[in-house]
Sequence to fold (340 residues):
Amino acid sequence: MTATQESQDVTAASGEPRTINLITAVTEALHEEMERDSRVVLFGQDVGARGGVFMATAGLQASFGKQRVFDTPLSEAAIVGAAVGMAVRGLRPVAEIQFADYMGPGFDQIISQAAKMRYRSGGQYTAPLVIRTPSGGGVKGGHHHSQSPESYYTHTPGLKVVMPSTPYDAKGLLKAAIRGEDPVIFFEPKRLYRASKGEVPGHDYTVKIGEAAIRREGTDLSLIGYGGVMPDLERAADALEAEGVSVEVIDLRSLVPWDKALVVDSVQKTGRAVLVSEAPRISNFMGEVAYSIQEAAFDSLLAPVGQVAGFDIPYPYVQDKIYLPGPNRITAACVQALNY
Fold:
């Protein structure tokens, strides 16, 4: 779906479209899915009366009661383990891990239980659960509140991994995740919670997991990212287009599955690609995207595939602007590709 197509979808909605921010889109998706399906339950640290550390679940306990929206002990292993058990028994659990950095204690339950349930049972059981978690930097949270650990989970067969950057996508993808039959790790870029604003329809809709979005079309270079870096991609594209460079901006939105066909088609058209994420460079998911590009579009490349990422250090407390890719580093990588 292109950005233009997305706008048309919103305009064609049966209800009036509204401009909201990303965190409100998450809250609305949860509320509507709980209203639609009595099997949906929400839980995690402080998600009940307080509404979560970022207020994503504010008001939901009052609307649906303490049996469906409840607080848990400070134990990620228990949160994920309970979610797996609920999912196997027929519920649709949505578990919140307060920060993506805290998912470690629940790692075994995610990769050894949730991800394997369909396969180890020969299809007799599934684990249709969603783990929501704020991810990434940009809020000066330091190295225990700002990491981007998505690559750990993209490496695990059986999981779907999603990271939206717009309110439209956040709402539509979260609804799709809750309705699906597979475990989904739903990363929410915390620096976009209130910074990202956009129109959403007034009617029920979903966004298919696994389809990327073309945010702007171009012919000279493909600029590809996801999550919190997307506004920086747009700023870099603006700077380049002011110099006469036509940039195609692609938002992956979904990492597993990811839209290889759309990316390859774009690079075959432009001949150049720069990949951007804020996770550390080593074993970055964008390395898989780069390999797939050179495998499928090698003869079309006019320059090596570029990559802009975070540095291979623990996330720094105060040097957010240095650590994060930012429009300057992105633009420099694009210029290097254009001048190759």
